[in-house]
Write a structure and sequence with these properties.
The complex is a heterodimer of chains A (about 300) and B (about 550).
Chain A lengths: L1 H28 L13 H10 L6 H13 L14 H36 L4 H15 L2 H19 L12 H31 L2 H9 L3 H13 L1 H15 L3 H6 L5 H11 L2 H29 L7
Chain B lengths: L1 H20 L10 E2 L4 E6 L14 H10 L4 E3 L5 E3 L2 E6 L3 E6 L13 H12 L17 H5 L10 E5 L2 E5 L7 H4 L10 H7 L16 E7 L3 E6 L13 E7 L3 H9 L5 E4 L1 H9 L4 E14 L10 H8 L4 H9 L5 E2 L15 H4 L9 H15 L7 E5 L3 H18 L3 E5 L2 H10 L4 E6 L7 H4 L16 H12 L3 H17 L3 E13 L3 E2 L16 E2 L2
Parallel strand pairs in B: 2-11, 15-16, 15-17
Antiparallel strand pairs in B: 1-2, 3-4, 5-6, 6-8, 7-8, 9-10, 10-11, 12-18, 13-17, 13-18, 14-18, 19-20
Helix pairs in contact in B: 9-12, 16-17
The chains are: A mainly alpha (about 300), B alpha+beta (about 550).
Chain lengths: ~300, ~550
């Protein structure tokens, strides 16, 4: 198990290095000049800006400087926010995205597992049809529509009640999180429901379920001990990457609900060609994703002894 | 399985406890509070930084004039009035400002002439790399210092004593007082700046204030708070105690929702939210931003748009009225008739009243005649497809498609639309990789010259590289004269050149529509300076 973990970790580090290199190359291939702004500047000022950000050196040289600094955990200063460290941006805004994302994943996992199991148990009957219809909606409708609808719902609720029950947007308390987390988790919830349903359907027809029934176990006990536990594996598999995806920020949801999360910086950096922030957020996201995948592999062992290596 | 659940449960509990207990307690302030005289607003983005010497964007230029003050400032009507300086004298070659003794920094120390000398020198140092340093160029030696040809101590500004500032000009300048109110001209205290190093203006606690308000809170990406500055010399005229910037989002619909929920006092509307606001029966106001949008042609050698008759052909099919009413289709925009917008001051009244621009007649026969001439001169049977460079905003696409359709239908001209993200569009504009680019210009200061020198051959913002010695000559006349009549006459010639040579094609003067809380009075909308300006705002019962 330990050797396996170390192997996975090493593979993970190589993956992160690859992500960083690929992003670096791709970023420098994007046409456009990160130092240009609305107002044109005299060549001397440009030269100074280039020096400040090390853009006066060759791309290869920049790459090695970047790699060296990355090993030290230093991503440099943002291009757009000229006196903020990229590390500060990640440190300030990742916890916000993470808190929101965890709540969203909580909603998604709870709903996905519950609804998925339900649809399988009531296969081709009314609950199944209704839920699967909603699932298709949840997967196909983009999140900005849900975000706008969710916010409109709050506005109408508040005006109906005559006072602000739930905040329309902003950040700072638990009540600020509920609607954005629901919206953010909706897509994942739909995905997990479908996964859970198909996996559950497989399990239901297994011989050991028949055995359990024949033993005279209560349906609840069969559901919890035999069906759920066996069916949940594929869900756990996708949960890892989903956690990474959601906790690093849903740009649209953060925009609509005015949430100071990392997603906004991630997208804006690309739009503004903010080299240092692009690298910082991408490498951070990549590393986080890799870590979650490794964790999921390890968690497998706890749930299913058959997966345990050695 | 149990272990997993327990772990998950523990994680959630920890996170939520941390969140609820965190000092970022929910601030559900209402839009207005009469008792405390406080307002809440939203910003579209957070200021990238608040260093007045380096500020370039609209958000910084909104916050900074609220918390800092230059030698002069703008009053309610947009006139330049006394700020830190209580009186001043401007001659052809120099200016003297006498500072008031009761102008204080937020730490209680007086604002002195040395603070201005330091700020201006520092903004011009090449190592500072300030993008707005050009605005200091009327001061003697400023340009040379900025280009690294001279030491910053050679700048033509001296602190005669703590309260007297003397300035030598590089050229006679008739509008220096209007520049003195600009952000880049704000004072910075040397000892404080040095003590902060790279951190200067990075956080609310890393900046000194001498304006009507102080910044007391700045949570990046989330919120800022400005409170009345008790050390401000003119605090008697400031009613508002607190400006909460509680939301930062670029989503106009989210801001409209916040407005409807009575959480913010004002928000701008776009084409979509405008209809929602109408449905809600909200009172919609409009305001002319003072910016002009135009099609800029590429005048470089190998481009077909260098041909004046091709430009004239396009000029005679473009109907600015139709463009404003059918394509932009939100109230407040004016059809473009000149590079100089309607608000620009002339000799005694508005420039456009004193020197009305030639109205372009939309005439298809004339347009076709010019197009034939252009084809002959270019020696082609058909004009090659023209590249129209535009930005990524949804409205830009709509405008570009309208032009594409118009020119195809009327003149059988092919337009290739090139949509590019901001930085790439700028790169292409600078390198000249376009035939026509959809561009705009926002004024920096309240003088016609902020538009006038835009197409001068030496101006780096002249992206089409238009080069006309006569245009340059007129700009120099207007730059070097103090006589309003001479200056405006020169600008009138420039206006005529732009029309006759179809140098650029004015499309519209930008207007925005917005909502304002009915209980808030005294908010000033400005073409130059902080916009909106809440300095004199107050809340009625």
């Amino acid at each position: 198990m330990l050797l396996y973990s170390i192997k996975r970790l090493f593979a993970g580090i190589v993956t992160v290095w690859f992500i960083a290199t690929a992003t670096f190359i791709a970023m420098h291939q994007v046409p456009g000049d990160p130092l240009m702004n609305d107002k044109a500047v005299v060549p001397e000022i440009r030269k100074n800006l280039q020096q400040k950000y090390g853009l006066d050196k060759s791309t290869t040289e920049q790459y090695f400087i970047f790699m060296g600094n990355m090993l030290k955990g230093d991503f440099g200063i943002s291009f757009t926010q000229q006196n903020r460290q990229v590390n500060d941006i990640i440190r300030d805004h990742f916890p916000v995205s993470a808190a929101l994302g965890l709540l969203a994943i909580f909603f998604a996992a709870l709903g996905g597992i519950l609804f998925g199991a339900l649809t399988a148990l009531y296969r081709n009957r009314l609950p199944d049809i209704i839920i699967m219809f909603l699932v298709i909606l949840g997967i196909s409708v983009p999140s900005f529509v849900f975000a706008a609808l969710g916010q409109l719902l709050i506005v109408n609720l508040n005006s109906f009640m005559g006072q602000s029950i739930i905040p329309v947007a902003g950040w700072g308390s638990f009540s600020h999180m509920i609607m954005p987390a629901l919206v953010l988790g909706l897509g994942s919830m739909a995905l997990l429901t479908r996964l859970m349903r198909s996996s559950m359907l497989e399990v239901i027809n297994e011989e050991y379920i028949k055995t359990a029934k024949a033993k005279g176990l209560s349906p609840l006990r069969i559901f919890y001990r035999h069906q759920l536990r066996n069916a949940i594996l594929p869900v756990i598999t996708v949960l890892g990457p989903q956690i990474a995806a959601i906790t690093t920020g849903g740009f649209v949801v953060e925009l609509v609900f005015a949430i100071p999360g990392l997603g906004r910086y991630f997208v804006q950096a690309v739009q503004q060609l903010d080299y240092t922030v692009i690298m910082g957020t991408t490498v951070f996201y990549g590393a986080f994703l890799v870590l979650m995948v490794i964790l999921v592999d390890i968690v497998y062992g706890f749930i299913d002894p058959r997966v345990r290596i050695n | 399985m149990k272990l997993l659940l327990v772990t998950l449960y523990t994680v959630f509990c920890t996170v939520f406890t941390a969140l609820i207990a965190a000092p970022v307690a929910a601030e559900t302030a209402e839009a207005t509070n009469f008792e405390t005289q406080s307002i809440t607003i939203a910003l579209s983005q957070e200021p990238p930084q608040l260093n007045s010497m380096k500020a370039t964007d609209t958000v910084s230029n909104f916050i900074l004039p609220h918390v800092m003050e230059g030698l002069l400032r703008y009053d309610r009507r947009g006139k330049v009035v006394a700020g830190v300086a209580s009186r001043w004298e401007v001659t052809e070659h120099s200016a003297t400002f006498w500072l008031r003794k009761n102008a204080l920094w937020s730490d209680g120390k007086p604002v002195t002439a040395h603070d201005f000398v330091f700020a201006w020198r520092n903004a011009l140092k090449p190592v500072t790399a300030s993008e707005y340093s050009f605005i200091l160029y009327p001061i003697k030696n400023a340009e040379e210092i900025n280009q690294g040809k001279m030491d910053h101590t050679m700048l033509g500004v001296t602190a005669v004593d703590d309260y007297t500032l003397s300035i030598q000009f590089a050229r006679p300048i008739g509008y220096f007082t209007k520049l003195a109110a600009f952000t880049t001209y704000f004072p910075v205290r040397e000892d404080y700046f040095t003590s902060k190093g790279d951190q200067y203006a990075a956080e609310a606690t890393d900046l000194l204030y001498n304006g009507a308000f102080r910044l007391t809170e700045w949570v990046h990406g989330a919120r800022l708070k400005m409170v009345k500055n008790e050390t401000y010399w003119d605090k008697a005229h400031v009613t508002l105690n607190q400006i909460n910037i509680s939301y930062i989002t670029a989503d106009t619909r989210a801001r409209l929702n916040l407005f409807i929920d009575d959480k913010i006092i004002t928000t701008a509307l776009n084409g979509e939210t405008y209809k929602d606001a109408l449905n809600e029966r909200l009172r919609i106001r409009s305001f002319a931003t003072g910016s002009v949008f135009f099609l800029e042609y590429n005048h470089r050698d190998n481009r077909p748009t260098r041909n004046v008759n091709l430009r004239r052909a396009i000029q005679h099919v473009f109907d600015a009225d139709e463009f404003v009413n059918k394509v932009l289709a939100t109230p407040g925009n004016l059809p473009g008739e000149s590079l100089f917008p309607v608000w620009v001051q002339g000799v005694d009244s508005k420039f456009r009243k004193e020197y009305p621009p030639t109205i372009i007649d939309v005439n298809l026969d004339k347009a076709r005649h010019y197009l034939e001439l252009a084809k002959q001169q270019l020696g082609v049977a058909r004009i090659p497809p023209l590249v129209l460079l535009v930005g990524t905003a949804p409205t830009s696409a709509k405008q570009a498609e309208y032009l594409q359709g118009l020119l195809k239908e009327k003149l059988d001209l092919d337009i290739k639309i090139d949509v590019q993200i901001f930085k790439q569009r700028l790169a292409k504009m600078t390198s000249g990789d376009f035939d026509i680019v959809s561009a705009g210009w926002s004024p920096d200061f309240d003088d016609i010259m902020t538009f006038g020198d835009l197409l001068a051959s030496w101006n780096l913002n002249n992206r089409g590289r238009y080069n006309n010695p006569e245009y340059d000559r007129q700009v120099k006349i207007a730059m070097n004269s103090l006589d309003p009549k001479t200056r405006m006459d020169a600008m009138a010639i420039i206006q005529k050149i732009i029309h006759d040579q179809a140098v650029v094609l004015p499309q519209y003067e930008q207007g925005i529509i917005y909502l304002m809380h009915p209980k808030v009075r005294g908010v000033v909308r400005r073409v130059v300076g902080a916009d909106p300006d809440f300095t004199y705002a107050r809340i009625i019962q």
